[in-house]
Amino acid sequence: MFRRAADEQRSPRPAVLVAVLALGTTALSLLQSLVVPLLGVIGEQLGVSANAAGWVLTANLLAAAVATPVLGRLGDTWGERPVALGVLAVMSAGTLLALVTSSLPLLIVARVLQGASYGLFPLAISVLRRELPAARLDVAMSVVSSTLAVGGVVGLVAAGLFAQDGGDYHRTFWVGLVVCLAALVLTALVLPRRPATGSGRVDWAGAVVLAGGLVLLLLPVSQGNAWGWASPATLGCLAGAAVVLPGWVLLQRWRAEPLVRPALLADPRTVVPNVAGLLTGVGLFASFLAVLQYVQTPPAAAGYGFGASVLEAAVVYLLPGGIAGILLAPVAGQVVARVGALPTMLAGAGCGLAGFLLLGLLRDTPAQVVAAGLLTQLWVAVAYAALPALVVAAVRPEETGVANAVNSIARSVGQAVGSTVTVAVLAAGLVPATGFPAPGAFTAVALVGAGSAAAVVAVTLAGMAGRRARRGGPPGTATATAAGGGRSPVEGAR
User: 22: which of 5, 124, 126, 302 is 20 to 30 A away, CA to CA?
Assistant: First the structure.
């Protein structure tokens, strides 16, 4: 008994803890992106249409939207360790099922199970806030959060490597299974047992209503191109979401123990990172999909592109940004600690704006496209490094999990929007004679990405102005540190 109590109080080494949590979030983003370049291959090898294969992505996104807020709240009320281990076990089971099945319905079930992985990120931030001192928290959160972007690139590279030349798509899931199992074992060994930071019960009624509203919103966002944007299904789902989501907010006002406090949703300190996360998600998938399709287009047929394979597209054009993100994450954390999260996010959005403008104007050589992709991925890495600091500084310790879960949902919605808009724009620009989009379609996608980055700049500047107004002076005039590694709203998000 006494030995167990001592084990519960022992803190792991910060570097080891950060590495294990980063591995878990890498597994999250790896599983998300692993199938993106393989949807066509999955459709061919399973003998289903492209629209049917698209549910491999949609099911994962819907499951994530439903599970993430509940898992974040469970981490606050039950403790992060048991919830994280449960999530990793479900992820591993889903990846094993995807590896062995050749049935589309079972593959969709597997992707639903993998959707639980999105709950790992808010759980990781909660652990870091509790275990680390304030002086180390910004860098640690930056490293863990930036792996969300890095893992996506790793997934694309793995897909290109294992499925090149028409290879069996199942082989790509071996990578995901190895990472999931490694994260499960290491989490069990490293994550300390701690009492929950929050109390009370999970608002299951609120969770069900929120899940319904998010499904009604994300279904047309992800399937609108297939259903038709003016179809009864699309319009009906959007109308339902417009009713259910505001109804959920009202329900939360009436609940004694809400899933998410309505005041938390309306607080400008959380609105800014949530809107910025949504817009950054748009830019992430606009960049990924546009670059992948552009560089794989054969120049002899379309008059542009480089005829790259899936593997070459991922390694040559996307991997440099992933490597830069790994190297930049600790630096971004130091910048957040010294100058604040909002100025850091502003600098990142500036990189994204420059990258999309370069992609829109200059893409005749591989070097130009690599540079554009590098800049846009630096935006995502820097933004993901800054967002947790903004959220953590705005909420109480017992709300860290659910607040970061809301931010994760915002990023997921943005990624769905970015994917859908990119596909729709490229499809609208299709040239029947060649079977490929016109060059102007890629310019249009670049403008969408540039608009997202510019909107983040505007939101961030508004957040900085609002913070100065609330503090009654210029940034940096006050600091405070709360116990247990949490910072006051003044510090860390200035």
Answer: 5
Give how far Cα 243 sits from Cα of 98, 249, 271, 483, Å: 35, 11, 21, 41
Distance, CA of 153 to CA of 114 (rounded, Å): 18
Provide the CA 210 distance to its chain's centre, in angstroms: 19
Grouping H, G, I as helix, E, B as strand and the rest as coil, residue 296 is helix
Alpha carbons 350 and 454: distance in angstroms, whole number: 8
**Tokens standing for 320?**
């440099």
Q: Which fold is adopted by the domain 2-202+259-485?
A: Growth Hormone; Chain: A; (1.20.1250)
Which residue is associated with the tokens 């047929």?
A: 301
For residue 211, count other CB atoms closer than 10 A to its CB.
Answer: 19
**77 is written with which tokens?**
């009320």
The tens digit of pLDDT for each residue in 81-101 reads 999 999 999 999 999 999 999
Domain extent listing, the chain: 2-202+259-485, 203-258
Residue 14, both tokens:
């910060």
Contact 58, 66 (CB under 8 A): no
- Cβ 492 vs Cβ 341: under 8 Å: yes
Q: Three-state SS for 386?
A: helix
* pLDDT tens for each residue of 13-62: 888 999 999 999 999 888 888 887 788 788 888 998 877 888 888 888 88
- Contacts of 465 by beta carbon, 8 Å cutoff, 6+ apart: none
Q: Among candidates 189, 76, 184, 51, which has minimal Cα distance to 126?
A: 76
Tell the burial category of 12 from Cβ atoms under 10 Å away from its Cβ (0-12, 13-18, 19+): middle
Instruction: Give the three-class secondary structure for 52.
Output: helix
Please give the helix or strand (H or E) that residue 431 lies within, else none: strand 430-431
The rounded mean pLDDT for the chain is: 85
Identify the residue whose tokens are 């099911």.
59
- Residue 467 CA to residue 267 CA, distance in Å, equals 12
The length of the chain, given as a count of residues = 494
User: If DSSP codes are grouped into helix, strand and coil, which group holds residue 480?
Assistant: coil
β-bridge pairing 430-431 and 436-437: antiparallel
CA 380 and chain centroid, separation:
10
Cβ burial, residue 181 (10 Å; 0-12/13-18/19+): middle
Residue 7 has pLDDT above 80, yes or no: no
Residue 167 pLDDT greater than 80, yes or no? no
User: Is the pLDDT confidence value at 478 over 50?
Assistant: no
pLDDT in tens, 422-439: 988 998 899 998 889 999
